[in-house]
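Subject: Protein record for review, amino acid sequence with backbone structure tokens
How to read it: Take the token row as a discrete description of the fold.
Enclosed: The protein record, placed directly beneath this head.
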Amino acid sequence: MGEQNISRGGDNETKRLFTRAVLNDLKALELMIEKGLIESGARRIGAEQEMFITDNDYSPNLTALDLLNDIGDERFTNEIALFNIEANLTPRRFKGKCLHEMEEEIKEVLSIAHKHANHHDSKIILAGILPTLRQMHLTMDSITPVDRYYELNDRLKEIRGSDFRLDIRGVDELSVTHDNFLLEAMNTSFQVHFQVSGNEFVNMYNMSQAVTAPLMAVAVNSGLIHHLRLWHESRIAVFQNSIDTRSTAHQNRGTQPRVHFGNEWIESIVDVFRDDISRFSVVLTSDFEEDPVGMVNAGLMPKLKALMLHNGTVYRWNRPCYGVKDNIPHLRIENRVLPSGPSVIDEVANSAFYFGLMSGMGDKVKDITEVLRFSHARNNFLQACRTGLECHFTWINGESISATDLIKNELLPIAEAGLKSSGIDKDDIEHYLTTIEQRVDSKQTGAKWAIKSITEMNKDLHPDEKVRAIVAEMHDQQAIDTPIHEWPLAQAEHRTDWRAGYLLVGQFMVTKLLTVRPDDSMDLAASIMDWKRVRHVPVENDEGELVGLVSNRSIIKKIVDGDDYKHGTAIREIMNDNPIFAEPKTTTVEAIQIMREKRISCLPVVENGKLVGVITEYDLIKIASHVLEADLKAYKKKQID
């Protein structure tokens, strides 16, 4: 998670001093490379396992600090939100049974997390994006109370100058505006690290860029944001938008976002850092080493704290990383595209495929930059994110090929050869790469499974019930570590307590709204009510703010009175300009009480001043019928038992 002892970069003098420290660190890195001090000949792998915390009904649960306090294991750490935690796995030599050892350690840390989660009425879920997560869960109440996160949120908003906006189009469409950077907390990843020698870093980094697309295609596991079917790996779009500091003017002129794939093949690791320092201003500052160049000349390897903090606020999907252990500096490639889940076996299989390609592609292609255009590598990645195994790539020498054919016929054999040449255990190679092969044959990735599950559920079921059923099935399958290609589609029947989906207004409010503007014609509102069989229509302004509510009663009264009706009546003349409203986190009980006491049958829902939904008497009647039906079923079951 990086340096926690940080402060804002907003003070101009502090920023200048820290920027100088970043530049001095870069000079020290250049010197270490020039002197050949970077560790060579040692291959190591590592990973970061992120996970969601839910309550027993699979909604996000803010118990991270409780769990971490109980766990007391230095491998575990906090994440941005209180419904996430992370475990940093032990780095290990890339040889022998290392993949199996990685799998066993993942199971170990998950077992620890599950054990302590149970003590706090919580569950642990591996998912790229948790389907039960809603925008109402992403308030500052959910942020982990660590200075780094508060400062990062404030600084990103300050640089951007406006709210964060998220637009994703898949089978469905999502378009939201959010006032903080917690959109990032929607994502959990399984980030893998691959240590390489200094003299091979450039070729290996470029190779990682090239193979990221087919790796992504077979590993996609984030097809849903709540019930909306979007990109097969929606994490990529979410993360890019949640950390986007570009103003509208910067976006219009094509300025690169802080989350990015890159611009071109690299020619040196120093160029990567130079590019990021040039493009992205200092966001956070911390303590730093005063004379890292002098340290190198004295034989003491610096940690490059300033450069690494800045590097940690620029989010390349393949990120170069520097570290030092026992006074020996090393370089790693951090591949950040892999999602958490669907199961442990799937995660390790994905890792084996990546590590195998990194080890084996060099025997097939000496220099990837000579046979594959960078624009094709980047476009391949975006296509994989959008449609997973259904996409087509432009591959080496301009060949057009489907993801499934490329992975099965070309890349799996290369990965197998790469793992063998690295001395990886033969049985482990077969075990993990066979898992990838079977996933390709079935074409059932985690994303495909979730999208198909929700599509085939009863259309009359409430979306919240559907996504709870999906997460419940995830939990069950992860408990027995079944690979995704063997998962049955999730079924909604009897999986969760349906009441959990109706506790808060934001869970069942109608969000696909028909609204009018204050200066619209009363005739328009009357027509909408007639066509859609509703009795109220919210009135909003051009900024999406609730400014009124017009009812069929007010329209009828205007018509009966006949007051200037023939000349046309504006909505503002007949609307209630001070409507009572609720918020997404208003409880259903509170909403019922409000509607009873105020004798109203429609309750608009407002968040941060914006209209986000509506609930009506009809919605509450449906909930009541659910109660009666559930109680009747429970009574009949009790009688039979």
The chain has 22 helices and 22 strands.
